[in-house]
Specification:
Two copies of one chain form a homodimer. Chain A has seven helices and nine strands, in the order ββββαββαβααααββα. The first copy, chain A, is an alpha+beta fold. The longest helix of chain A is centred in the middle third of the chain and has 14 residues. The first copy, chain A, is elongated, with a radius of gyration of 19 Å. The structure holds a DNA duplex (27 and 27 nucleotides).
Chain lengths: 220, 220
DNA sequence: ACAAAAGTGTTTTTTTTACACCCATGT
DNA sequence: ACATGGGTGTAAAAAAAACACTTTTGT
């Protein structure tokens, strides 16, 4: 490989893995084991290999550090400041991953990395520019909230409107009116009633919905 | 630089430079001089150097190929398919640049590249995945149309509402009602009347507006 | 019967759409 | 006076926001 050294770049793929757990939006962070910033938290990341796409690298990274594979991911942003890291020049490519808590528990494999799910508004000290990258990813989530393909990934299967409302509220960071929310979502015409209901321990059972298949495919 | 060769990547910055000229949205393309795809058209591009940011590379590329410097640019998208180019594995980072025709004519320097402004709906045969990248950039333009910082760049200085309407119509690809457009834009509260008017050769002079400074800075 | 959570309807306000005539200038 | 392009208002429709009581279940 005889390429001009001036054009050799390293790219790290930084993954922002989100879930909704106990009615809160959470993100998965791991601890940094080396100096500087030893003990600080970071986004699971890997250098991009020449043999893989950003998406492949992101999925491999999530499998390696979070212990879960094949989740939904989205390209997010690129961070190219020359001094974003103290020593090396590495481009940062931020990717969002979404997983529901139930699927996570079912399919999580043991990893040597002791990651923790942090509530999105209780983010600990993070290394380098990771806090900034995470904040940007949370904004991305907000501005793409109506993507059914993305929303779907917060649930293991069918879901209720109160559950969906919690996803909206957590990502938007504000409470929504239940009646107006139902009207708005159902009017979109992207959900269908499964005719099933939850059997909760308490309270009235809720109707279960799913995204219409035809609506999921086509979204920009 | 003794880095693992598996993590050595090359990144090209592909610039989508837009302008509005004669009431049409145009993009600047140059010709490819080598095989394969000799004679086909391409987005002005350069490999990213380790010493520069994506933005710096994009600006340098636009200066080199288009002959204009210091224009407004925006990060767009990353294309990382391993086989997007036939021989090398090079990541594509797409960037949007915007320039108004008048500033272009004033400040354009001679370049050895004979670029042409193509109407957005009359794009010629393009190399590799460039047509796809350009289409994606045009979509980006559409979805960020309300960014005052971006809109501002279509004009050399103050502008009239009919002129702004043409920008909207061209980017959206559809006609808008004049009265509703005025109402909507003025209601945003981001424009201020300069109290000046155009002196056109024909017809009634139009009021000149500008973006309020305070509104330009803060936009996500 | 009570506690818990889900479901529902109406009114008001705001935003969006549709639509046609008058005004200011140069020739 | 006329041709050219710019400016304006109103009514209808649609979407969003505000707001509180009833229903279904488990205990």
């Amino acid at each position: 490989m005889d390429i001009d050294r001036r054009y050799i770049n390293q790219i790290e793929v930084l993954t922002n893995v989100f879930t909704i757990d106990k009615n809160s939006l959470k993100v998965y962070l791991i601890r940094r084991l080396e100096e500087p910033f030893k003990g600080y938290w970071m986004l699971p990341s890997n250098l991009l290999m020449t043999s893989e796409t950003i998406e492949e690298c992101a999925l491999a990274t999530i499998e390696e550090y979070v212990g879960i594979k094949g989740i939904h991911i989205e390209q997010c942003n690129v961070f190219s400041k020359v001094d974003r890291l103290p020593n090396d020049r590495i481009l940062g490519n931020s990717v969002i991953g979404i997983i529901d808590e139930e699927t996570l528990l079912m399919h999580k494999k043991k990893t040597p990395y002791e990651g923790v799910w942090f509530n999105i508004d209780e983010i600990p000290k993070m290394i380098f520019d990771h806090a900034n990258i995470l904040k940007d990813a949370a904004n991305h989530l907000k501005s793409h909230l109506n993507n059914p393909l993305m929303l779907k990934m917060f649930f293991p299967s069918d879901f209720t409107l109160p559950e969906l409302q919690i996803v909206y509220e957590q990502i938007l960071g504000k409470k929504l009116d239940r009646r107006n929310f139902r009207k708005r979502i159902l009017n979109l015409g992207i959900l269908e009633d499964t005719n099933y209901k939850t059997n909760n321990k308490m309270g009235r059972p809720a109707k279960l919905y799913r995204f219409k298949e035809s609506e999921i495919e086509y979204y920009e």
